[in-house]
Amino acid sequence: MFAPSHGHGHPCVAVDLNTQLDFCHGSGLRPVANLPGFLRGLQRVVDWIHRTGAPVASSVESHRITEVPPDGRPLCCVDGSPGQEKIPLTLFDSRCWVEVDNTLSCPTDLFRQYRQIIFRKRSDDLLANPKADRFFTQVRADEFIVFGVSVEAAVKTLVLGLLARGRRVTVVADACGFWHGNCAEMAMRQMAAKGAELISSERLARRRTGFVSVPPNGRERVSDSPVLRVTDPEGASRRNDPNGRSESTLPRTRSHAKLSGPAKRSRGRRR
Asked: What is the CB neighbour count within 10 angstroms for residue 254?
């Protein structure tokens, strides 16, 4: 392992967007159009993360059952639904969930205790979550490596937001899912024109970058988050109810821990 950069920063932070069952499984409510190739690229990125020890900042779409989708499609990633769960591939051993509650109370040094930080979001824009905005603005990182779903929405929005903040951004093109090829291609061009570097997962796999320290405690803990979920889904299917609505029948979580109220942050001993 190699040491973090000066000032307790990180050589890079991997940014995993919306890798959830509704988008990343063939039986989800809205699987991406390039699913097979996307999953191959995603596997290479995750292998690289495990090999290098890079910290991971993730997002999950989180919609209320009362919301009405603007495009008339089935509402995806509904709070508490199986399809909202992250795929097991992109869950790491030590992680915490950061909720959406319109406050800025999110420590920027969470990577000292956790390997993965997962932010919930209510819209395509992750930075619309004030905690995520504060975190990505202040976290010390030389580079953000972005991948996930979808190119034409969440990926493009976050990448352009980070570039506007003067951050260095790399997009792993074949580890990004999309629904519309033409829109995705245009989004890639826009990100590149603004200064993002576009690379393949194979090129990333050949990179050697500084390792960062991984929390020695493999237990999953909660910081600033009233809810903690551990998921290990196997297989999935989809059915339509008598009213013609599409209903996800993806498997529910096997291990589910729920904490009520705000959880206190565990204080780790600084080295």
From this structure: 10
- As a whole number of angstroms, the longest Cα–Cα distance in the chain is 60
- pTM confidence score: 0.75
Q: Which of 154, 139, 142 is nearest to 191 (CA)?
A: 154
Task: Kindly report, residue by residue over 116-154, the tens digit of the pLDDT.
Answer: 999 999 888 999 989 999 999 999 999 999 999 999 999
The C-alpha atoms of residue 219 and residue 71 are separated, in whole angstroms, by 40
Q: Which domains does the chain have, with CATH numbers?
A: 13-258 (3.40.50.850)
Instruction: Show the tokens assigned to 25.
Output: 């499984």
